Amino acid sequence: MPREKRYAAGRARALGLPTRGTTNRNRLRRVDRHLVEVHRSLLLKASDPLVVDLGYGATPITAVELHQRVRAVRPDARVVGLEIDQARVDAALDARVEGLDFLRGGFELAGLRPLVIRALNVLRQYDETAASEAWLTMCAGLQPDGILLEGTCDEIGRRAAWVTLASSGPVSFTLAAAVEHLDRPSSLAERLPKALIHHNVPGSPVHRLLTEMDRAWDAAAPVGTFGNRQRWAAMCASVDWPTVGRPRDGELTVRWASVAPT
Fold first, then answer.
1. Which residue, among 136, 229, 133, 152, has the nearest Cα to 193 in the 3D structure?
2. 3-178+241-256: what fold?
3. Closest CA relative to residue 77, chosen from 59, 94, 52
């Protein structure tokens, strides 16, 4: 990033609260895989492939991994890790390489205009209203065709859930799991993003989805003889829900409108 552009970005007032900082190698591999595979054409067509890792944590490892995965698809892509804690930014500077930088910033995106924002495990500490406001702030900073991936995962990345948002608002909702370690789909409920986790009660859309997934998972038990991957695929094929895209290994994406709180 040119020095004058970096300076201008750094002057924006950082919005948000520091996260706990918990991070682990490969923790965000599922959402990264989703980004580079499902949204591959977005990365390839963009004139300015800038990707922001918002709230990367106490170490820069997830930003480094994001940089590696995105650059494998788009070699000229730039990744910027943003942290509201200046000490974390200072500690990450040694990890800088071509196309990877670190700045102090929050939901205002340090004045940047990214194509993609990845914000995992950032909004769980906020109340629902504040999280919704953070969505609006981040989406307003996207490029016209840009996307925000916002959600949560467990400490080692075996269970994850995220919402994909465009500048106009939420578009889809994704559940992802290391299926070889999955007992049943409703176990993913503990990783629902802030916009949904308090609405997972009987009668709500997201609760109905998880219940439907459990029903289909149980019905696919005989297929489990061949492994949980085959069982997950059979479950996805029989779930009666408005899904998005083709079935993927350990991943199910549905339209946001089908799970949005009423």
1. 152
2. Rossmann fold (3.40.50)
3. 52
